[in-house]
Every structure is written in C-alpha cells, then in structure tokens.
Write a structure and sequence with these properties.
This protein is an alpha/beta fold and 503 residues long. It has 14 helices and 23 strands. Helix 6 crosses helix 11.
C-alpha cells in the first residue's frame, strides 16, 4: 500500500530575507496552519549568505530593509552583508521558524490539481553525503520567496580575446575566499550596485582599481548613519523608534522617486550637482556621471558616506567610460585604443533573472507559461490558484513589499477559510495594454522580459512601485476583487469584515 504523501497547509520556498519574514508572518497570523520553509542551500540568508565579495552591503537603509516586527539596532543605517546575515539568522532563531526550515531541499516542479485543491511538489533533497534523492509532498498554498535571480550563475557576456588574458578573472557571485589582490591592478567591468561596492572596497588594498563602464551612470552619495534615526533611538523605545525611522525613510524615498519620474531634469541637476561638489571635477562628471537616460530608468546606485567618490579622489581608483575591443594577455584594450593593464579582472556584469526559481509548473495538467500571464497586485499570477510570488520593490527596500505580500497571503488564506473556499485564482476582466513587469531599461530586466508575467494598465494588474499606495490595498483591500473561487459563497452571508474595503 502506498504511503500517503505529507501534506502541509502552506509551503514557503526560500530561507532568505523574504522567506524568513514570510515564516514569521505565517507562524504568528496563521497559528493553526502547518507549514514548512524549503531551502535549496544548507544555510539561512539567501543572497546575504551567498554573496561574499569585498564590501558587500545593502543599497537600502536597514530601517526599511529590516523587518517591521524586529527593530534594527545597529549603528549603521546602510549595513554590510555580514550584519544583515546575522540579523536574518537571529530572526530565524525563533523556534516557530527554525523548526520549520528544511535545508538542502530544492523545488523541481509543482503541479496544481483543482479536483484535489492542492499542489504536488517534486523536490530534490540532498543528504549529508551529497546524494540527491527525489521526494514529494503536497500543500494547499505555495508561496515562492526565492526572488527572481539565478543564483547558480550570473549574466556572462562573452568578451573577445578573454581566453588570452593571463591574469585572474573573478566573478562576484562566486568570490574565492583565498583571492589576494593586494598591490595588484584591478579592472571591474560594470557600473551597477556590485561594481560601485567593489571599487572602494578593493581600492583599500589594490595598487589601483578601474571601473570600466560602457556608458555614464548615476551614483548618489548617502550617509552611512541616519542622524534622524539615531535621535529617535535616543529618545524613544526601540520599537517605536524603528517605526518612526522606517516611516521617515519610506516618505523620503518615495518623494525622491516621484521627483525623478515627474521632474527628471530637476533630479538630474540635483544628482549632478552633488557629484560635482564631492569630486570637484566637472570634466569627470560630464564624461562618466551624466547618463543619457533619466534617473530611475535604471536602478539608482548609492555610495554610503560617498566612499566611491572618495576612492576616486584619493587616486586609488578611477572610472573609464568606453567599450571593450579585446582582452590582451596583460589587460583590456578599449575601442578608443587605450589599454587598461590588469592583474585581476572582475566582470560585474549583472545577475541573470530566473522565473519561479527554475522550477516547472502545471495547472490541471497544462504547463504554465508565465509570459502569457498577468501579475495581480504585485504578487499573484492570473489563472494560477493558491500561488504567490514575493517580489520586492526596485525603487525602494525589497522588504517593504515583501512584508506586505506575506501579510496579504495570510489575509487571503484566512478569507478562504472563512468563506469555505479551497482555493482562489486571479482572473482578468478585459483587454489591457501590456507593460513589462519591471519598468526598468536595465539590461538584466530587458533580457528576461518574455519569461515573466506582464503587467496591465490598471489596478490590480499593475506592479506598483509605491509603498504608500500598496500598503492600504495589502492590509485592508477587497480580497475578492478580480478573484475566482472554487465554490459559491455560503447562502447565509457572513458578517462583513470592516477592514475589507474596495481597493
């Protein structure tokens, strides 16, 4: 006789920042539900455990990147990777979370059955000896908190002549612990957040670090410490101070983003003026930090305490804006004819996006093609029952939307139980204008547009980048809007939930 499959009410995929936050919400808001957190690796932390390159840090302040239920108490607002990892681990030490994490368990495929109202998950589970075995379990609701990046490999463009280079080539995603770059010449290819982090960090020990970018980029200097938040923590209890600092930073970030989108010329002038004031070199600003695109057409990089610009001023680092002609045995020759000599080359060329963590999905026997689906409220997908994706903001802290998504999932599950429904799925209500899920011109987004669900031209089919609009919807919005459930409402209508408003 076949042994019945283990069944859980909720399965969370990923034990990184999002997954641990989701586990806390499920354990506290759905205390009667069985759940597990599946983690493909052997450690908690996700991105913050995987990335070990020099200087790895957050791009967002920790009052918004941190959890609203766990105050950030460290001095720095822009924190280093090891501090963030420790913060996640301490949060996961809660026995309600720690005991539910299953390490070395990778989701391979998920099949939904409307008849059974459950997902059947195929899992690769690695034992202590490294042997991989296949297991299965079922769940009522599946919540993917594994992000949208491919953590097995990044974006790796081919460079002419790269095989002739006699130095070391090091990829940030797989930084070797024993790399010694002290006194060596380093070229970092790229100008995204990773490159902007690497340059000042490596410049402390390297002979010289050059950031090679194809086109100019925006970089803004921000304080490493938040004076307002420091004052709040001196005069208020930790929890209240955390929420006050969080609210202030949400408002400031949203205000600046709206300025960038609505009055880009003013935003450009502000960023350019700040950069020129720090560097004191108008020519460098014009050549390297005056892009053709508007701020927030691509993700805006930050330099805590202006560390990037200080490295340039010290002479230990420089920026070159040009394209690669070919690698040579001793470095890189550029299209202009200039040659950058290098002992170490770091291609910080970006991550590759990967939908659904690379797992395959079917609904009632039909393969799911995300590219044909629509995103719903920034976390569900049209036509797919009892599935949510945790996707953070691009213009603000990832955790702001991640936590809203987790709280929405808990509200939805309560709603299903209250009305006697087994499942619900978003359903579109007419033709819409198609837009990419992320409105960024960045290469890593454009390369993956077709693999992800699209957004429409009206709510709730948009991926809003606005916490102030999303919070009321996630916490008190109408859970039945544009949703199809598996059974009609009970004949005796339940008492209305006063918190559910049309949003």
């Amino acid at each position: 006789m076949d042994t019945p499959l283990e069944h859980l009410d909720v399965v969370i995929v990923g034990a990184g920042l999002s997954g641990i936050g989701a586990a806390y919400r499920v354990s506290t808001e759905l205390p009667g539900k069985s759940f597990a957190v599946l983690e493909a690796r052997t450690a908690i932390g996700g991105t913050w455990d995987l990335f070990r390159y020099p200087g790895v840090r957050s791009d967002s302040d920790m009052f918004t990147l941190g959890y609203p239920f766990r105050p950030w108490t460290e001095a720095k607002s822009i924190a280093d990777g090891s501090s963030i990892l420790q913060y996640i681990r301490e949060t996961a030490d809660d026995p309600r979370i720690r005991e539910r994490i299953r390490f070395s368990t990778r989701l391979v495929s998920a099949s939904w059955s409307s008849t059974d109202a459950r997902w059947t998950l195929e899992l690769d589970v690695t034992d202590d000896g490294g042997t991989v075995g296949r297991r299965r379990l079922t769940c009522g609701f599946l919540y993917l908190c594994s992000g949208y990046y491919n953590y097995d490999h990044g974006y790796e463009p081919s460079f002419p002549g790269s095989e002739s280079f006699q130095g070391e080539t090091v990829r940030p995603q797989f930084w070797p612990e024993d790399l010694d770059y002290a006194g060596k010449r380093v070229v970092v290819i790229g100008s995204g957040a990773t490159a902007v982090t690497l340059v000042p960090s490596m410049a402390k020990d390297a002979a010289h670090v050059t950031m090679l970018q194809r086109s100019p980029t925006y970089i803004t200097a921000v304080p490493s410490r938040d004076k307002f938040s420091d004052a709040a923590r001196r005069h208020l209890p930790a929890g209240i101070a955390h929420h006050v600092a969080r609210a202030k930073n949400v408002l400031f970030t949203q205000a600046f983003y709206q300025l960038c989108r609505r009055r880009p010329e003013i935003a450009k002038k502000l960023i350019r003026t700040q950069t020129a004031r720090i560097l004191g070199d108008e020519k460098t600003v014009q050549e390297n930090f005056t892009p053709a695109y508007n701020p927030w057409d691509q993700r805006l990089c930050v330099a805590p305490s202006a560390d990037f610009f200080k490295a340039l001023k010290s002479g230990k680092a420089s920026v070159v804006t040009d394209t690669i002609d070919t690698f040579t045995p001793t470095g890189i020759r550029l299209a202009s004819g200039q040659e950058l000599e290098a002992d170490v080359v770091v291609p910080a060329t970006g991550l590759a996006m990967l939908p659904l963590g690379g797992a395959t999905f079917t609904v009632d026997g039909q393969a799911v093609d995300l590219g044909d689906a629509w995103v719903y409220r920034g976390l569900m997908v049209s036509g797919i029952p009892n599935l949510a994706l945790c996707v953070g903001y691009t213009n603000a802290s990832w955790t702001l939307r991640a936590d809203l998504s987790s709280r929405y999932v808990c509200r939805l599950i309560k709603y299903l139980d209250r009305h006697g429904y087994r499942y619900g799925a978003p359903a579109t209500d007419g033709a819409m204008t198609t837009r990419p899920i992320l409105d960024l011109t960045s290469g890593y987004v454009q390369r993956a547009v077709s693999a992800f669900p699209k957004q429409g031209d009206r709510h709730p089919w948009t991926m809003r980048q606005n916490y102030l609009l999303d919070a009321p919807t996630a916490l008190r919005g109408n859970l039945a809007r544009n949703m199809v459930f598996d059974a009609p409402a009970p004949s005796a209508a339940p008492a209305p939930d006063l918190q559910e408003i049309h949003a």
